[in-house]
Design a protein that fits this description.
357 residues, alpha/beta, 7-stranded mixed beta sheet, 4-stranded antiparallel beta sheet, 12 helices, 17% strand, globular, binds pyridoxal-5'-phosphate
Length: 357
């Protein structure tokens, strides 16, 4: 199968090879150095700046979102949540579950966050801002500079879920004054699902000091303390952390974050140029390099997903809920090439000839 889904994505040779090997015992100096290197390279690629820390949780991305809400906010906060789809909705629900007062900027599917939306909340007494920078459910990629400027002006602690944009689009955590950034193993890092990462700025670290969290597994202070010696409080997904290490080193040798962003941008641009003759419309006003959301003009989107999977051996990503029949998504992350784009485009052209697109 050729994998254009939004995670897990197509895995590279090295990552697959590590997946076939014996899982090593991990309370060792060797594994500690792997973890310390993982932390150093994550901080470097996010440009998190001096004094930042990274935490690795054995849990999917949503757990890192939940840990952030639980550890960095309390009933004394008032956070603004951008809710433009199912991931924004998830942040809003997490605030409710954990008793963090929140207001939502609710956007319609495919609607871009603008200055006008934010104007309503100038000097409104908010303390934090939660956003999924690339709302992966719709493919809307928000303007990080607009959000960052608003947060700086209003003194808000900014949390960015960058799960599907980190390493696919330029991201400078320090320049944007991002307090905490969230990502996970199964998107651009192109590893199996199961590990999520949190990068914490010095601001986030001092916020943590003033809070106490009612959780054992999601206690970030405990994770940070163990991380100082390259360890985790509990048994981590050892193999995935080794795979992450291989990927981070691969990226470092190839030219770092910028190189991976350029590589994915090339794939995305190539695909977007070559679908122009096909009966599909790009369904977002502002795109991340990570993904192209497509609205097929003549057929239901979920059927396109089924036919590509069952008849051509290709996974794209279907949508759920109200967008199920309207949009399918094509990912550009992971070990994909221009030749793989050609295989997908040949399949889409063939489907068009068969009146299935
Ligand atoms: C993939 C993704 C997540 C993580 O979801 P999990 O299924 O919990 O790994 C969270 N936010 C965004 C924006 C995503 O794209």
């Amino acid at each position: 199968m050729l994998n254009f889904a939004m995670g897990p994505v197509q895995l590279g040779e090295k990552v697959r090879e590590i997946g076939t090997q014996q899982v090593p015992y991990f309370r060792t100096d060797e594994f500690s150095s792997v973890m310390l290197e993982n932390e150093r390279l994550m901080i470097k690629f996010a440009n998190a700046g001096p004094g930042a820390r990274a935490v690795f949780l054995t849990a999917s991305g949503t757990a890192a979102m939940e840990a952030t809400v639980m550890n960095l906010f309390s009933a004394q906060d008032k956070v603004l949540v951008v809710n433009g789809g199912s991931f924004g909705q998830r942040f809003a629900e997490l605030c409710n579950i954990h008793g963090v007062p929140s207001c939502e900027i609710k956007l319609a599917p495919g609607e871009l966050l603008t200055e006008q939306h934010l104007n309503l909340y100038e000097n409104a007494g908010c303390t934090g801002f939660l956003v999924n920078l690339h709302e992966t459910s719709t493919g809307v990629y928000y303007d990080a500079n607009l959000i960052s400027a608003f947060c700086k002006r209003n003194g808000l602690f900014l949390v960015v879920d960058a799960i599907s944009t980190f390493l696919a689009d330029p991201f400078d955590m320090h320049a944007l004054n991002v307090g905490a950034m969230i990502t996970s193993s199964q998107k651009v890092l192109a590893c199996p699902p199961g590990v999520s990462m949190l990068i914490l700025s010095p601001d986030a670290l001092s916020r943590l000091e003033q809070q106490s969290v009612k959780s054992m597994y999601f206690d970030l202070k405990d994770a940070l303390k163990n991380g100082e010696r390259g360890q985790t409080p509990f048994t981590p997904a050892v193999s995935i952390l080794l795979q992450i290490n291989a990927r981070l080193n691969e990226l470092e040798v190839a030219g770092g974050a910028e190189h991976e962003v350029d590589r994915i941008a090339t794939l995305a641009t190539d695909f977007r140029e070559r679908i122009l003759g096909l009966p599909v419309e790009i369904a977002s006003p502002r795109l991340s390099n990570a993904m192209t959301p497509l609205h097929p003009l003549h057929v239901p989107a979920d059927r396109v997903f089924q036919v590509l999977k069952n008849e051509y051996g290709i996974w794209v990503c279907p949508n759920g809920g109200e967008l199920r029949e309207k949009i399918f998504r094509v990912g550009h992350m992971g070990a994909l090439t221009l030749e793989d784009n050609s295989i997908l485009l040949d399949a889409m052209n063939d489907m068009n000839r068969r009146c299935l697109l």
